[in-house]
Amino acid sequence: MSNLSATLSIAVGALAAEQSALSETANNVANLNTPGYSRTVPSFVENPPVVLGSFTFGSGVSLGPIDSIRDAILQIRIQQETGQQGHLDALVTGLKQVEAQFSNQGSDIGSQLSALFASLAQLSTDPTSLATRQGVLAAASNLSATFRNTANSLTSQQTNINLSVAQAVAQVNTATQQIAKLNGEIASLQNVGQDASAFLDQRDVLINQLSGLIDVSQIKTESGVTLTTSNGTALVAGNQSFALTTQPDVSGLQRIFAQGTDITGQVNSGQIGGLLAVRDQKIPALLSSLDTFAAALAIAFNGANAAGFDLNGNGGANIFTSPPASGQGAAAAMGVAMTDPALIAASSDGSAGSNGNLANFASIHDQGLIASTTPSDYYSGLIFNLGNDIANASAELQSSQLVLQQLQDQRGSISGVSLDEEAAHLVQYQRAYEAAARMVTTVDQMLETVIHMGVNG
Amino acid sequence: MSYLRANPNMVPDLLSQIQGTRQQEDTATLQLATGSRINRPSDDPAGAAQMISNRDATGQVDSFLRSISSVNGLLQTTDSTLSSVVTALQRAISLGVEGANGTLSDPDRAAIAGELTSIRQQMMSLANTSYQGEFIFSGTANAQPFVGDNASPSAVTYQGNSGTNSVAVSKGYSLQVNLPGSQLFTAPGADTFQALTDVINALQTNSGVGSAVTELNTAYSHITAQRVFFGNAMNQLQSQQSHLNSEKVNLSTAATSISGADIAETATKLSQAELALNAELAAMSKVSQTSLFDYLK
Q1: Which of A391, A422, B243, B264 could form a disulfide with B42 if both were Cys (CB 3.0 to 4.6 A apart)?
Q2: How confident is the model at residue A457 (pLDDT cuts 50, 70, 90)?
Q3: How far apart are CA A46 and CA B103, in angstroms?
Q4: Residue B35 forms contact with A (CB below 8 Å)
Q5: Rg (CA), chain A
Q6: CA angle A218, A219, A224 (to 5 degrees)
Q7: How far apart are the first and last CA of chain A?
């Protein structure tokens, strides 16, 4: 079998193999900046030898299966960390917007409360002055306006986050649809033994996106990847995707349903998890603290006013509007009920010039108003908790970003396209191609020699 | 592949470094601009909470200081009024003693009685002194305290009440700022108006002038004794004021140590961040510029 035409066919096979390898290199270089692309490495396989009697002849090379270089476990770690990062990112962004309400040190609730106490102290030095009394009402009205504005801003932030939840759910549905479609393509390619690495890369990118949005568990099955949410409801099974739906609850907040089951409380990870944490936990907790604070202050100031007599010698009426009995919504509804400054009950005995009852107002400052905490301490506790939440979440976000970056580095070091490597391969394949071509020329010349042997000889 | 592969794509790493450095730069700039290390609660949660207590305490001290200066005006007016009262009474006593001299003629006594009558009127107007539109000797009532009848001078009625006001001048310390006129001018057994009336009557009838002057003496010592109250109160105010001023300094020192940005350190941080940023940008511009492809011809 060791004849010239066999040698020619070895050379031609080599030409084909090197050309295919070169095209893989070209593909790698072309996808240098494609996100999620895993580089491919062509594998050359020696053809089965031909045995003739006691001789064994090689029969050339062909291109084996093309390896797409990827690390499936690393990919899963990246997806988990992306989910964590999505959660923290949404949490920190949401909380920072909340924090802005409490960052203005000159006009926050704490300073408005101090101003109210100061105006009352001023009144105690001149209890009959209507101007000073007006000052007290103005301070009270500033305080309640600040409570109202803060509570309203928090509520509108909640509404905005609610919109983002609905948008993120729509993104989840787009991603799951695409993943299901890719699952189908991958399965049909793999069934006929073809390389599906391009689709695998795309699917990894999409699953990664999905993890950045919501909790995802993945199970590899024969029909591709099955994705489920945290409670086990399928998002994608084979080439089928199951859309999440949203439905507003009584307060207008979107609940998330997976195939009819409310999973809102079970979403922890990803952007949606972070958004929900701000919408359903952080903001409501803050609002309820503000409500408690506003209600306690209104009751305490009204109580102090009721203990004394106004400028006309009558018992003190309410300064602030009575908070709702449950306390809920007290901050948003806080207002000043009194319009006539003469009705501030400075007097303890009914005589117009007495300031005796103002001591009752002043004592609110140091009273254990809410769970034996003074108003100022209650407010500073609220600020501490908020600041601490943000500081912790930011620190976690930073470390999560570092981890993710390292994982991406690791992925890059395994799957990323290196131009140096590709250049080296290019040279390697090009030279091999040239050599094979030379081989064809040589065999051609030899054949010519053989053909002309009888004619001219 | 038998070599350790590095991640060929360095751009994301570098970009995130650059972002981090820019953030440091922003933080340092903000701190320099505000002079404060804590610009949001999350910058230092415990510090931010402390700052709220600090601002609250500072606000309270400021408010006490304002109260002190208002009260001080009232006390000074009261004290100087009483000082005029005392002077007038001294004059009345010496006139009374002069009138008690048996060698005086009736017209002389009538002249003395006349002068005493005008002292009595002066006394009346002093007892009705007001400060910022309010009578200072009416207790806590908002009415003219002493009303006399010029036709029958003996009838002076007190229309105020016996109430007193106290003003908080420091944490947990309230200072009484007034005495009711009834306690000063018409106290039982030391009634100034009654004593003056009695002396005038005694001079006009030339009987019992001596005992009437004794009455005047009693009223004089009563008012002098009561006046000490205001002197004490003003002393108290002064000591509270200096105490509060030093507390204010302490609070602002504490505020600086809690939230004040160390300017030198922050400026250094800023220039370090700028340096780092320049280096990172330079690295960014060099990265991936060369590969093996550049050397293949």
Answers
A1: A391
A2: very low
A3: 156
A4: no
A5: 38
A6: 105
A7: 26
Report CB contact under 8 Å: A103, B39: yes
Give contacts of B66 with chain A, Cβ < 8 Å.
Answer: 118, 121-122, 125
Closest by CA to A363, choosing from B244, B172, B58, is B172
Is B174 an 8 Å CB contact of chain A?
yes
In degrees rounded to 5, what are phi and psi of residue B191?
-80, 110
Whether the per-residue pLDDT at A79 is higher than 80: the answer is yes
pLDDT at A28: 92
Cβ–Cβ under 8 Å, residues A236 and A258: no
For the entire predicted model, the pTM comes to 0.85
Instruction: Mark yes or no for CB contact A409/B56 under 8 Å.
Output: no
Selecting from B70, B140, B291 the residue whose C-beta is nearest the C-beta of A353 gives: B140
With b for 16 or more beta-carbon neighbours within 10 A and e for fewer, the B178-191 pattern comes to bbbbbbbbbbeebb
Question: What is the CA B277 to chain-centroid distance, rounded?
Answer: 52
Say yes or no for a CB contact (<8 Å) between A383 and B8: no
Cα–Cα separations (whole angstroms), residue B231 to A126, B70, B77, B84, B238: 21, 16, 12, 15, 11
- pLDDT tens string A16-47: 999 999 999 999 999 988 888 999 999 999 99
| Chain A environment of B130 (Cβ under 8 Å) | none
Is B289 touching A (CB cutoff 8 A)?
no
Q: Tell me the two tokens of residue B297.
A: 């011809």
Nearest CA to B31 among B266, B269, B277? Answer: B266
Biggest alpha carbon–alpha carbon distance for chain A: 147
Domain ranges for chain B? 52-253
Nearest partner of A38 among A223, A186, A239, A203, judged by Cα: A203
ipTM: 0.85
User: Cβ(A300)–Cβ(A364) under 8 Å?
Assistant: yes
Cα A21 from Cα A43, distance rounded (Å) = 8
**Average per-residue pLDDT for chain B:** 90
Mutation site for B-interface testing, chosen from A70, A97, A99, A126 by largest number of B Cβ within 10 Å: A126
Partner residue opposite A416 with nearest CB, options B8, B43, B163: B8
Query: B166 and A359: CB-CB below 8 Å?
Result: yes
Distance from CA of A9 to the nearest CA of B (A): 30
Check B67 against A121: CB less than 8 A apart: yes
Pick the CATH number of B52-253 from 1.10.150.20, 1.20.1330.10, 3.40.50.300, 1.10.540.10: 1.20.1330.10
Task: Measure the CA–CA gap between A412 and A39, rounded to whole angstroms.
Answer: 10
Contacts of A390 in chain B (CB under 8 A): 40-42, 45
- Chain A residues near residue B48 by CB distance under 8 angstroms: 380, 383-384, 387
The residue extents of the domains of chain A are: 4-69+417-456, 75-406
Q: How far apart (Å, rounded) are the C-alpha atoms in residues B38 and A105? A: 10
The helix/strand/coil state of B63 is helix
Chain B: nearest CA to A192, how far in angstroms?
Answer: 29
Q: Report chain A's mean pLDDT, rounded to a whole number.
A: 91
Residue range A86-123, pLDDT digits in tens: 999 999 999 999 998 888 777 889 999 999 999 999 99
In angstroms, the CA A279 to CA A160 distance is 9
Q: In this predicted model, what pLDDT tens digit does every residue of B55-72 receive, in sequence order?
A: 999 999 999 999 999 999
Confidence of residue B264 (pLDDT cuts 50, 70, 90): very high
Contacting residues of B for A408, CB less than 8 Å apart = 7, 12
